[in-house]
Write a structure and sequence with these properties.
By secondary structure, the chain is α/β, with parallel strands linked by helices. It is built from 18 helices and 29 strands. Strand 15, helix 14 and strand 16 form a beta-alpha-beta unit.
Length: about 575
């Protein structure tokens, strides 16, 4: 390892070895693709960059030399189609390895990558194409998203180029039929990359075009302040906001990988379970990990199956792992016996309530704590338990040294320990991980960047030791009989009951209280819905938290609505409740 990260950071540690201060440094023409990926590829072309596989049986091992070669070919092909500096390119590639070729190629061209989920329907896709003024779409053949794009193209005047990537199944093909379908081990190894061809009217074949392109690509002029990445971030109301990041954003993830994920640079493999349509993918499957010269692992699956993921950890000797608490819970429920997890050295989690029983179960069975972190699409990991820090189960940790963070009350004053307030981030100077703006929405930008602080909309409280404890989104807070109730605390209590496998807490209208606490619960095996079980769970909650917080309404369902990354969608539960009331 050449410690390339030290070119771009000055760090100060405490006597106990904890990170205390972190200042990033970089030239005006810094470009992640040239200055990190290509630099490593030139100095150590055989350094492992990514191990990729899918349930169909295909497997590839990419070195940094390979990533440079394929990203150069991709950049040349995209340039030949007129894609260049400042152009918006919508990228919907699930977990296909072509995402990484595309991401690095667009950085080299100075174009703006706009990742999106394959789950979009016509209205959502049209909104993204129009609002971001997308010039090109690079899309997977897996699923129905290409058909959706065809349906809306005529309504999107800025869209000039459509490229289709054959997704080699993407986990949707029955493994028993994969070989007969020409998908699987036959494509692995030398010459198998981008080997599959595809035809669809109105689309260009990405694999064919990239394969035929030259691998000689000269560095182009870019500036670190140029727009580089745009994500759509959905709230509880209105259309998704367009979160724009500049060329310094990748460096903002240096502490993500180094001080939170604790990646192993030589001989290690980091596995963040996230679809590339969501911001968590670049948190854990691209920027920080490659700045730290580490190898990432990608499993191109369709639906999360705990046994498959555990088998991947075993077979590929994963050293560091990051996924939402729900996925850890499902793996524990599946059972960890029969899998060799001894390669794991560090496990991180974010996005949902991490209750003590899950923390203890994972630690008991693996010997490893679950290390929490917090951040948003608008930021990098801004609060986390850093390497070497004693974890308090359920706490997000302490503010990242990259950010200056406070908790403010409704009057904008700092909150004392124990008092809930909004997480706010100081803007002067603007930290590298912070978005530049909500693209083309100055009013919305001004609403959150106010008085020298970025207002996250997330509520938390800090204890006497400076650890932050998440309460919930402003929009998720349940206001009942004058009390403000955060869903995380109630969910954590409910998850300790043996009958509760998963749950989500929301508010429902109540004529007396304004809102009543509702728990939507997926039962553990061996339990069935009954009035008696409702009463038992309610009594359990009353004894373990303030009485006004217990769920007055309990709904048992087979499966909670989730994002493709496994994060529970409380907004979908609220929307469903609202729809039922209207009917």
């Amino acid at each position: 390892m050449r410690e390339i990260n030290l070119r771009y950071v000055d760090e100060v540690y405490t006597d106990d070895g904890l990170i205390e201060r972190l200042d990033l440094k970089y030239p005006d023409d810094f470009n992640f693709a040239y200055d990190i990926v290509d630099d490593i590829a030139t100095a150590e072309p055989e350094r492992p960059a990514m191990v990729w596989c899918n349930p169909e049986g295909e497997e590839h091992h990419f070195t940094f030399g390979d990533i440079k070669r394929w990203s150069d070919k991709t950049a040349n092909y995209l340039a030949s189609l007129g894609i260049g500096r400042g152009d918006m390119v919508l990228v919907i590639l699930r977990r296909h390895y072509q995402f990484w070729f595309t991401a690095i190629a667009l950085e080299k061209l100075g174009a703006v990558m706009v990742p999106a989920t394959f789950m979009l329907k016509e209205d959502g896709l049209k909104y993204r194409l129009d609002s971001a003024q997308v010039k090109a779409l690079i899309c997977t053949s897996v699923g129905e998203i290409a058909e959706t794009a065809d349906a809306v193209q005529a309504l999107c005047p800025t869209l000039e180029v459509k490229l289709l990537v054959d997704g080699a199944g993407g986990g949707t093909t029955d493994p028993a039929l994969a070989e007969k379908a020409g998908i699987g081990p036959a494509l692995s190894g030398a010459g198998g990359v981008c080997a599959r061809r595809i035809e669809r009217a109105g689309w260009l074949d990405f694999n064919a075009g990239v394969s035929a392109a030259s691998e000689e690509f000269a560095r182009r002029e870019t500036h670190v302040a140029d727009p580089s990445l745009l994500y759509f971030s959905s709230g509880t109301t209105g259309n998704p906001k367009m979160v724009l990041h500049d060329g310094a954003y990748p460096l903002g993830h240096l502490p993500t990988a180094k001080h939170w994920h604790n990646v192993v640079s030589d001989g290690g493999r980091h596995f963040t379970i996230a679809d590339t349509g969501w911001g968590k993918a670049v948190w854990g499957k691209l920027f920080g990990q490659w700045i730290m010269e580490a190898c990432i692992f990608t499993y191109d699956f369709d639906r999360f199956v705990p046994a498959e993921v555990l088998e991947c950890i075993d077979r590929y000797a994963i050293t560091t792992l990051c996924c939402p608490p729900t996925m850890y819970r499902l793996m524990v429920g599946q059972g960890l016996t029969g899998y060799d997890l001894s390669s794991l050295s560090y496990c991180t989690t974010a996005g949902e309530a991490l209750n003590p029983d899950l923390f203890e179960a994972w630690q008991e069975q693996t010997g490893l704590p679950l290390v929490e972190g917090f951040g948003q699409t608008e930021t990098t990991c801004s609060i986390f338990n850093s390497v070497g820090m004693a974890c308090k189960p359920g706490s997000m940790g302490k503010p990242s040294p990259l950010y200056s963070i406070q908790l403010h009350n409704n009057e904008g004053a700092p909150c004392p320990p124990g008092q809930t307030g909004e997480v706010v981030i100081k803007l002067d100077p603007r930290p590298e991980g912070m978005m530049t703006e909500y693209y083309r929405e100055p009013e919305k930008t001004a609403e959150v960047m106010l008085g020298g602080w970025y207002h996250t909309g997330d509520l938390a409280w800090a204890d006497e030791d400076g650890y932050y404890w998440y309460v919930g989104r402003n929009d998720d807070i349940i206001k009942s009989s004058g009390y403000r109730i955060g869903p995380f605390e109630v969910e954590s209590v409910l998850l300790e009951h043996e009958a509760v496998r998963e749950c989500a807490v929301t508010g429902v209208p109540d004529p007396v209280r304004g809102k009543a606490v509702k728990a939507t619960i997926v039962l553990a095996d061996g339990f069935s819905p009954s009035d008696g079980l409702v009463a038992e769970i309610q009594s359990w909650a009353k004894k373990r938290t303030a009485p006004y917080k217990y769920p007055r309404v309990i709904d048992f369902i087979a499966e909670l609505p989730k994002t493709v990354n496994g994060k529970i969608r409380r907004s979908a539960i609220r929307d469903n409740d609202a729809g039922n009331r209207e009917e």
